[in-house]
Amino acid sequence: METVTLEVELNQADVEGSWNRDGAKLKPGANCHITILGKKHTLTLSNLKREDAGTISFQAEGVHTSSKLIVTESPAMISKPIVDINVPEKEKATFECEVSRNNAEVKWFKDDVELKPTKNVAIHSLGRKRTLVISKCTPEDGGTYICRTADDNTSAKLTNLKDVEVVEKESASFICELSHDDVEYQWFRGNTKIKASENIKIRQEGRKHILLFKSVNPEDMGDIKFTAEKASSTAKLKVKELPVKFVKKLRDKIAMYKHRAHLECQVSRASAKVKWFKNKMEIKPSKKYDTESEDVYRKLTINDVDSGDEDIYICDATEDKTSCKLLVEEQSISIVRELSSVEVTEPFAAVFEVEVSMELVKPPIWTLNGVPVQEGADVEMEKEGTMHRLTFKKTKASMTGPVQFTAGKSKSFAQLTVKERPLEIAEHIKDVKAKEKSTAMLMCKFSATPEEVKWFKGPVLLAASDKYNLKQDATRGQLTIQRLTEEDSGEYRCQSGPAETKGTLTVEVREIKITKHLADTEVDEDSDAIFTCEINYADEDAQWLLNEKVLFTNEVNTITHEGKVHRLTLKNLAPQDGGTITLQSLDDVTGEEKAMITLICEANKPRVSPIWRKEDKVLKAGTKYELLHTGKSLGLIIKDVTKEDSGQYSCDLGTEVTKAKVTVREIGIGITKKLKSVEVNEGDTCSFECILSRENIDDCSWSVNGKTVKNEGRFKISSQGRKYMLIVKDVTPADSGEVVFSIKDLNSKATLKVEGKASSISNGLQNVSAVCGEDGIFTCEVTQASSTVKWAKDGKAIRTSKKYEISQQQKVMKLTIHNVSAEDSGEYSCEIVGGATTRAKLEIKEPIHKFTKVLEDIQADEKSSVTLRCETAQSPSTVTWLKGHTELRAGGQYEMFQKERVLTLIIKQLEEKDTDIYTCDVGTAKSMAKVTVKALLTTFVKMLESQEAEDGASVTLHCELSKPGVPVEWKKGTQVLKSGEKYQMKQKASVNELIITKVVSEDSGDYSCVFGDQKTTASLKIKAQPVTFKQKLENLEAEEGASVTLHCELSKPEVPVEWKKGTQVLKSGEKYQMKKKASVNELIITKVVSEDSGDYSCVFGDQKTTASLKIKAQPVTFKQKLENLEADEGASATLHCELSKPGVPVEWKKGPQVLKSGEKYQMKQKASVNELIITKVVPEDSGDYSCVFGDQKTTASLKIKAQPVTFKQKLENLEAEEGASVTLHCELSKPEVPVEWKKGTQVLKSGEKYQMKQKASVNELVITNVVSEDSADYSCVFGDQKTTASLRIKGRKRIYLKHYNVQNLLLLQHIN
């Protein structure tokens, strides 16, 4: 709201004039004052607004002058900023600020995004107040909000607690941010204060407050509230519960008949609900069933268990299940006769026997080496009343290990030892005689399959080769020697481990003699010559030679062999054929299908014409046959051989023929699985199996011990594909020997060994228990009555004597030990000579006890004693008392007595938990009875007593009950009290205490201790203490800008007080913060200024304490001075400086001239920073500028770089009619540059004829009422720059007027 004055001075007084704005005449009014004083005409415009801007002109009798009025608004500043707020979710949030003027426009932003009015956002403007309202806040609305004017802005934060949803056991955090530091705050769940603990952490980081749940439980769910003085924020904590799991599952259980069975498990959550099922039927609480749920433990109790309770029980928690088996033990089973260890040699049978105290309802469990034994072909399990027997019919060394018998909770152990049979020679090598060139076979047999068999000739170890064929089938070893020579004679040895056998091979060497020699022969040319020779062996081959060259049968030679006679016929002889003839034989050839066979012979002359034949068919070269002839070598190659290629082939030279037999074997046929040797007992069934590499249509044959067998009687022969099988039933010793399978030229051999039925133990020894003085008798049964046995005690042999009596009744062997004593206890054994051994123990026992008087069920009152008494037929040496299944020890609550046969248990100071079944166990007998304890009524033994106490003290109320550990409830009047900072509740045995800390008048009243319908009450009276100031306020001095704290202390905490400055009551806010900690009260005055000096009082009731506060003002100085500046012409230049204090008024100067805010100069102040903005600078703006307050001053120089001025638009030539007005205009590159107008060389002056105008950079020359004399060149000049245009005037009828020239003086002042 500024004022401007415009003044015009004329050269004459008393001249009427008018003021106009944009052509409209101005009239005097409230904001417009027009005055005339002599030659001066003045216009004053007050309360300027933007619409007052425009061209202001003054006219008086032909005089006209004008000026522009530019109205710039004062900066729109924030006079009261918005503040941080914290609101609960779904509540309304309001930001409010004040601006420096009513018409100031503002814009609202959230995180730099402009806000517009919506359903949820409202923007209001009332006077200088600007308001932003957000209704139903959501977590997304949190953030930084800004209110921005054209010149200033203010910001604040909106925060709210966010709802948190987590899964059980995860962490959850709540964060709330305040606008101030050091504010009292509190966290709540519902209406309960939250306190820091191991699981809950509360911390503060500046203005940010954090609540952290490390591991959330379902009980933590609810509304979480944060309060700080009057501000509060609320959010919900939602917890998704984890599915219930069984942490500890049900376990199978064995319960005693007529006792109670407890099935227990543990769930993952205390609140989990479960259902109990017996198989598929739900169990409900009844006399039979009790269900318990305590914390995370779940328990099912089954009362008076009987056999019908045996079943599968299930505990179902919906998301998880657990089940178990309940087994009922009818009675306590004990072992009457223990297992005895057994030692046998494989494969003899082993028998174990055990006797229990009663017949079993459920089958017992037998294990060997910890593995359950199943009945089968080699395992037999028998039961005869209370006696149980386990028989291993065929033993192996690998079976050695512990044998265990389990019946209920009773177990018996024994050791099974199976010895390996030592490897022996079952059949020795027999001496063999064989002829030279034949084959010899040496064989032996071991008692068991050896790991490795070695053959030796003398000391030399033999290895498999073309000469030696080594075989091992099961227990049999075999050595085959091919093509015997004289050197093969000697001693052969077969060895495996310690077993060894020897045999001798004798090779009969034959002496070949020619019994009829060749005779010299002389024949005519072209005739035949015959040579004959006879040797002493018909099976010897021979060779014929002619001149050292081997001869063969062909077209010219014929060689025959009949018995011992060998004949050669030479045909068509020539003189050169003469010579000495000898004989040489040809080898036959064997090949496989699909292969290639080559036959080769040699002639004594290279020039021969051989003819090759198969049987009588002449062979020709082709794809099947290839004929070779290299020098004297002749050959025939048969390709892609088939079985049809088998036969006799010959090469005929005419004079001589040679023949060979070709044999073709089937491809790839062989035995992939050979026969395996078998060892069986007489009467058993055995089988042999052989597998070929491929199927074959030829017949096979089987032989057993040298005799060919057929598919009949005891022998079953079968084949399936490649598999061939022989089954022998009811084997006899006569079947022992070699079993041979033959097909075509293949065979496989194995050995069948049949063992005679050896004697073994059919019923082993059993453990014996005998009473001192009685006889102890051991018996065992063998399979053959002829068996010889040896008896031993602890490994020492027993002979017949007065002590020991050894006898035999057919197959039953008996040892009687007379008049047994403790020294006779130990292990006894019976060994079949060369066979099995059975062992058992003799235990010397006391007589079996029986109860003549049993325990009886009894009932007794709590706190009393009870006596249980029973009597046995004989005095027992050991007595055990049990409560349920727990063994009791003498001492404390229990006393135990034994007087001969009378046994006594006394239970003192009975409690409800002593109700149970009690057992007296004397080893061989048990007696049980149920003790039921009746609970006594609980009463108050000592009542509460009324008390008086002084204000601030602690008070203890206590009472005593007739029973310890009884839960009670404390009340004040009808209000139930909770344990916490105010109230502490303690219980020691039967004494209960209530401690009330720091009592005040309000704690007076009646207090009660309650349990059930029992109650005791006492009154508490508090003597109030007068409240006084323990510590008064103290005078303070502080420096301006600091924060000051005044504090005092009362004699009582939590007393409401009032703070005053002088008589003015102070309110908590940004300036004043009021705090209370117990009895201490504080007033904090922030950023004090001189005006805060004065007297401050703290008042309650008629009590008051006062102190004075004196503020020392700080001298104001320049923190940052002005700095010299250079700027380009036309730009804006900003000078700024900073003071040590904000809000200090300053004055800006250029040189000595005080500057005013306007279009040219803008002055800003933000806190302690002051700025001067000079717009559109020109060279004239160069100079020294100062910022001044009081006697402080800072100065800097501004230097403007001038821009060269040029004509942007030049003058243009014009034509006009006489009498008209003509306007010449041009534009410069710079505004407000002074120019000069010329007509030719004549400088023109502004007047009635010529009007010169300048608008920014545009210059105009208006020539009014032009005449022909105005035709000329006109120029606009500044400096050395010039633009010229010609004006041409067209003539018209002239009207002459007489003009009076008036010189006017215009003075314009712009006053702020």
TrEMBL record:
Locations listed in the record: Cytoplasm
InterPro entries in UniProt: Ig-like_dom, Ig-like_dom_sf, Ig-like_fold, Ig_I-set, Ig_sub, Ig_sub2, Obscurin/Obscurin-like_Reg
PROSITE patterns: IG_LIKE
Predominant location: cytoplasm
Top-level taxon of origin: Eukaryota
Domain Ig-like: 75-159, 243-334, 422-506, 575-663, 773-843, 847-932, 938-1021, 1026-1110, 1115-1199, 1204-1288
UniProt cross-references to SUPFAM superfamilies, sorted A to Z: Immunoglobulin
Keywords of the record: Cytoplasm, Disulfide bond, Phosphoprotein
PANTHER family: OBSCURIN LIKE CYTOSKELETAL ADAPTOR 1, SI:DKEY-31G6.6
Protein name: Ig-like domain-containing protein
Organism: Xenotaenia resolanae
